[in-house]
Each structure stands twice: as C-alpha cells, then as structure tokens.
Specification:
- 4 copies of one chain form a homotetramer.
- The first copy, chain A, has 4 helices and no strands.
- Chain A is an all-alpha fold.
- The first copy, chain A, has a domain of 75 residues: Substrate Binding Domain Of Dnak, Chain:A, Domain 2 (Up-down Bundle).
- The longest helix of chain A has 28 residues.
- At the A-D interface, helix 1 and helix 2 of A face helix 1 and helix 2 of D.
C-alpha cells in the first residue's frame, strides 16, 4: 500500500468494520427481532449503509481520487443509519460503529 | 468482450437479471409484505442469491476460468431461492428468474 | 419493482451495462493491448468506474433515496472514464457506454 | 454477531485482509511495476481472488450455510494467487496473506 497514508488505512478499517456491523446486525439481529427492526426504512438503510461502506473502502484501496466523494456520501449514510439505530434502540454497538466510520470518512474529504 | 461465447453473454444477462429480481423482491416486496416474507431463512436466501449472482457475472466478465465453480454454486442457490419463493407464494416472477438463471449457470459448468 | 419509475429502470440498465463494458474492456482489451492501456491512471479509472456503476444500480434497486448522490458521483466518473478512453483511443464502445450512463445518472439527480 | 463462532470471525478477518492485499497489490504495485506484473493471467487472478474473498466474507456475515462452498472456492483461488505471486516474485506479503486466507477458508468447509 505505497501511497496510502495512515488516515487512509484507518478509514479502510472503519469502513470495513462498519460494513460488517451493519450487515450482521441487519441479518442476525433485526431479522430475528422483527417489528420495528424490519421496517422498510430502517432495514433498507442498514443495507445501503453496509454497501456504501464496502464501496468507500474499495475506492481508497483502488487509489482513486474519487474516494473523497464516496467517503462524503458514506459519512452521510452512516450518520443516518446511526440515528435510525438509536430511534429503534438495542443497537448501540452498530450506532457507535456508524458514528466512528462517519468521523473517519469526514477526515478523508 | 473478445473471447466471450454467446452462452457466456447469456449467462451474464441471466445472473444480472436474477440479482436484480432477488434484491428488489426482497427490499420492495418482502419487507413491505412482512410475515413469512421476512422470515430469516427466506430473506437471507434472497440476499445470498442476489450476491452470488452478482459475483457469478463478475467472474465471467473478469475472464476467470473459476467462473465455472462460481456458476455451479450460483445454480444451487438459485434453485433453493426459487423453492423458497414458491413455498411462501406470490413471488412467481422471482422464482422464474431464479430457475432461468440456474439453468444458464449449469450450462457454464 | 413497485415504486420504480421507467427512468429508474433505464438507469439501472445503463449502470449495469457500463459496469460490464468497463470491466471487460479493462480485463479483455487493456490488459492484452498493454502500453498506455495499462497506465495506472487509465486502468484505475476503468475499475473505479465499473465499481461505482455497480453500486449506483444497487442503490436504485435497494430503494434508497441516496441513489441520487451515488448517481451524481457515477456520472462524474463515467465522464472522466469516457475522456480517458478517448485519449488513449480504440475504446469507442466503452466511451459511448460511459457517456450514455452519465446522461442517465444525471437524470436521476 | 449472534451465532458466529470464533473460527467464523477469524475467517471474515482473513478474507477481508486478503481482499485488501490483492486489490492494493494489483493496483498500487503491479500496475506500476508493469512487465510480468500486468500479464493477463496474473492480474486477472489478483482481481478474481480479491472478489471471491469479499464474497466469502459476505456469505459468512449473511449467515448463509452456503458460505462453506464459497469458502472452498475462495481457498482454491487464494492458493493459485499465492503461487502466481511467488512465480513473478516481489509479492511475498500478498502470497502470505493468500495462504493464510486459504487455510482459514479450509477450516470452514
């Protein structure tokens, strides 16, 4: 990883960590809990957040300058996802992961 | 697409078509219908099927010989997903897409 | 695909078509042609463009409102990729696909 | 991550680590080094390996039983990729990552 700064490496870790958190929380927690946890708005957001996190990490890894724009969008989705987790409750770990990832992505912009 | 046979091109189309069908049926139909449609077994299968279809297409596009193994696995998941759609009902289009994709993937093996 | 407009469906098709074009042109044409075709700037752009196209389609399919932002970014990368294809030459089909996809993505914003 | 064993968690880490290693080695090292590093066989393998690693991790995260089959295929591609890195030389880190990931994936089968 030749031209990668420590901030970039940290952001990749945060993005892949948040991707993991959102996809497993959605599939292993929300689907089983049911009720508000599978409301379309929330569930869709969890999947959209996991996807943009994966893409964000990918753009940094590719070495594309456009990672800044993808990270900006990632930060927005992470914030929204964290708020949705807080509203429904019982997903503090995922909300924290999302906020940490959002902060890291904002440092890339 | 230099060395791509017409069977390969057809299989890419089937895989990307089935990917679209599974992901939208899960997100735009199952999540809204609720009940059996969001049972973990079924919903997980829909997402797993959409993912392997996307990967299957990607392997043919990359020109990797390993596309045969990924297509084999894709055919299995598509069959399983089609059966799950039939059991729950009301998802005939998605089940058909899955079976067409499975047939196309098997022709790649 | 319940709430999907015909523009959305067209945009998914364009995005998945451009994804296919960029990834196969990179892997089946550029890698074999060598020279300018594998210059880091160009090759990276081809892969980045194929990835954002895939993500863009995914966001429309998920039914996320954020597809607008991803489509905006996709349009920018597609334009850049088309220009890079034109500069190097011999990739008119891919450049055309990129410009069509850019136009379709801009109609989503 | 409710029903996830420590082996599963370790395998996700290996897969996402190997994905990162293959994609950055391809884009930040091979593309710049040129020559044998961008021979279609090798480069294609690097991208195919990074993709199956990403998919493998995704299947474990989704909680799909089919992760076993995807992990089996992942182990094969990782071995092949490691051998290709060794033949060309100068990519020991990536070869090691691939072999560690292959071992971890085999423990999932």
């Amino acid at each position: 990883m030749h031209n990668m700064t420590s901030e970039m490496k940290a952001c990749i870790d945060e993005c892949l960590g948040c991707y993991q958190s959102c996809i497993t929380t959605a599939l292993q927690h929300c689907l089983i809990a049911g009720g508000k946890h599978v409301e379309p708005m929330h569930f869709r957001l969890m999947l959209a957040c996991s996807e943009i996190c994966r893409t964000s990490a990918h753009f940094i890894l590719l070495g594309s300058e456009h990672h800044k724009h993808v990270c900006k969008e990632c930060a927005e989705l992470c914030e929204e996802c964290a708020n949705s987790c807080d509203e429904i409750g019982g997903m503090d770990d995922c909300a924290n992961k999302c906020r940490e990832c959002a902060a890291s992505c904002r440092s890339m912009i």
